[in-house]
Each structure stands twice: as C-alpha cells, then as structure tokens.
Design a protein that fits this description.
Elements lengths: L49 H12 L4 E5 L3 H12 L3 E5 L12 H6 L3
Parallel strand pairs: 1-2
C-alpha cells in the first residue's frame, strides 16, 4: 500500500477516429493531436472532454435528431446513452460481432443488443 494525498490517472489516451472520409478535415489534420477538435467537420464529435459534451449538447439544441456512435465498447455505449438522454435517436456501430467485446464474452455482449 502507498499513501497519497491526491491520485491522478494520466493514461495518455486519445479518441480513435476511424480513417473514414468525412471524419476529419484533411487540411486541418494535426498529426501531433489525433483528436484535435479543429480537425473535425461540423456534426462530428468525440466523447472525451466536457467541451466535447458541450458541442454535442449544442448540436441537439440546434435541431439534431439522430446520432451514430462509432464503437460499441464501454465508452461508445456511454456516449450512446448521452445522446439518448438528449432525446436523439441513437445508433451504435460496432465492427466486432457483439457489443463490449473487450469486457464481455459473446453471450454477454449479444444480450446488450436486446
């Protein structure tokens, strides 16, 4: 055991944005910051910071009706719940054969689709 006054978990992670046409603006792509908000076109969000969530909320208030969440892992399902709570129709796109493939086995992940 180690005693501490404050704990900071700095994972160094970033949001993976699939290399799909239209997901980033090539002229604004930042190789030093893969999830740079300035590199995304209007209506494309990641789900990592409070600013990301504020952008999603603003889009909902401006009339967005539907959201496609790319990734059916833990964070993707959390994002899907957030857009659902914003009264948007939510669609989760996952390339694995079932949801949460890192955390669950196939029967467990398949049960989440119901």
């Amino acid at each position: 055991r180690l005693a501490y006054d404050a704990l900071v978990l700095a994972t160094g992670s970033y949001c993976f944005v699939p290399p799909t046409p239209g997901m980033t603006l090539p002229e604004k792509r930042n190789p030093q910051w893969p999830d740079d908000p300035a590199s995304r076109p209007e209506g494309v969000f990641v789900y990592r910071t409070i600013e990301d969530l504020e952008g999603l909320i603003a889009a909902a208030k401006q009339g967005a009706k539907t959201a496609a969440v790319i990734g059916g892992g833990l964070l993707g399902l959390e994002a899907a719940k957030a857009v659902y709570d914003l009264k948007l129709e939510s669609h989760v796109l996952e390339m694995a054969p079932y949801l949460m493939p890192t955390q669950l086995n196939e029967p467990g992940g398949t049960a989440l689709t119901r």
